[in-house]
Amino acid sequence: MFNKGVVLCLTVFYFSIISTALALQKDSERIISENLIVRVDSSSVVQGSFKVSPDTKRVAYAARTGDKQSVVTDGKGGKPYDGIGSIIFSPDSKRIVYVAKAGDKILVVVDGKEGKQYDGIGRDSIIFSTDSKRVAYAAKTGDKWLVVMDGKEQRQYDNTGGVTFSPDSNDIAYGAKLGDKMFVVIDGKEGKAYDGVAEPVSSPDSQRVAYAAKAGGKWLVVLDGKEGKPYDSINSIIFSPDSERTAYLATVGDKMLVVADGKEQRQYDNMGGLTFSPDSKHVAYGAKLGDKMFVVMDGKDGKQYDEIAGGSIIFSPDSKRIAYAAFVEGKVFVVMDGEEGKFYDGTGSNSIIFSPDSKRIAYLAKAGDKMLVVVDGKEGKQYDGIGRDSIIFSPDSKHLAYGAFLEGRSFLVLDGEEGKAYDGIITSVGGRIIFDSPDTLRYLAVQGSDVYSVEEKIKR
């Protein structure tokens, strides 16, 4: 369900860091400066290890030397280990953590400092707090699991689930198992025991917690410690941006329904894409009845289509507009405020974006074997590929940029105009286009064996 969107992403290369150099390119509209930060030694780089920090100013990767591997960060190689696992930058880009293998033991290295060695580290369990000051992960010792937070071990259990920090970084929560019972642990305090629990969800203001729990063959939502009505299954628990409202999907027999603020809505054959508007006043989701699908907003069914693209439902920042991608007879189009756009062969998953002022809209589309960006209903040039998730409006909503690929060359497209050509624009593994101001943006570009931090200033 909801999964026919077509996505293309640019090739990502893997590199080692060197000292910087500067180059300038001037044209009639843009001033481009290049800061060389990376030079490749592809023979030594562990495939899939290259990572870019959230601010796109730092890079890290695992390098292979003989039978050892080490993490290279900002040009400096770390201690060699028998293997390197996940590499993660903190949200503020100032810290880095990774998993390392030493003999038959596994450890976590935080900012170059080794943690205790364990028999295992939970897959994808390492997490930074929102303020980047705290680190937590799940570790295995013998046949037991425990959470390590800021280097301190918590209580041991038979198993632990995903670890989450509250948005304000003060609280930590995770699921745990003892014997045949499971419960949620919040700041070291164990909640009520159930037959099963799902990963807890914190409200944006960090004052509330919700999770799904299983009891007697049924699932229910535990919200602020209070149990809701039992259902056959529950998923997609969400809080509204103002933290006042909740919604989730529930299953009753072969039907599904949304429970919003504790009230059941109409039942459907299938559902997905549950979301609140930015102002928290509206709730929307995709639904299916028979062989047709449609978007439901505030309990009202929209026009029926063959399918609604997964992850495509989006509200404008001012909450006054809604858009999504729909399919009819194998073709896809964007529906905005009830008006249908042109048919295409595909759209980029989650590619629909509104401008910050909510007045403009853009999305990725596929025409044959080519990709293009549609801005305010107008088609851009067709390319061999468009950088995944690279489409972005400037803060003042006046400019639109994205990475494109054509005939072996890549470039930043700004307001429909192609910039300097490179071998690649990095728009994955953390790489992205960032507007630092309404008239300044930056990104990472590949030229030969080098990676540049590129800054573009828009001439007024």
Please, could you describe this protein's structure?
The chain has 460 residues and is mainly β. 0% of the residues lie in helices and 52% in strands. The chain contains no helices and 52 strands. Strand 23 (209-215) and strand 24 form a beta hairpin.
How many DSSP helices?
A: 0
> Measured on Cα atoms, how large is the radius of gyration?
24 Å
DSSP summary, beta strand count: 52
Low-confidence stretches: 1-28
What distance lies between the first and last C-alpha atoms, to the nearest angstrom?
46 Å
Beta-strand content estimate: over 45%
- Overall mean pLDDT stands at 91
Helix proportion of residues, in percent? under 10%
Outline the biggest β-sheet. 7 strands, antiparallel
Which class best fits the helix and strand makeup?
mainly beta
What is the general shape? flat
In short:
With 460 residues, the chain is mostly beta strands. It has no helices and 52 strands.
Name its key features.
52% strand; 460 residues; 0% helix; disordered N terminus; 7-stranded antiparallel sheet; mainly beta
Give the arrangement of secondary structure elements.
Elements: E1 16-17, E2 22-26, E3 30-39, E4 51-52, E5 59-65, E6 68-73, E7 76-77, E8 83-89, E9 96-102, E10 105-110, E11 113-114, E12 120-121, E13 127-128, E14 135-141, E15 144-149, E16 152-153, E17 159-165, E18 172-178, E19 181-186, E20 189-190, E21 196-197, E22 201-202, E23 209-215, E24 218-223, E25 226-227, E26 233-239, E27 246-252, E28 255-260, E29 263-264, E30 270-276, E31 283-289, E32 292-297, E33 300-301, E34 307-308, E35 314-315, E36 322-328, E37 331-336, E38 339-340, E39 346-347, E40 353-354, E41 361-367, E42 370-375, E43 378-379, E44 385-386, E45 392-393, E46 400-406, E47 409-414, E48 417-418, E49 424-425, E50 434-437, E51 440-447, E52 450-458
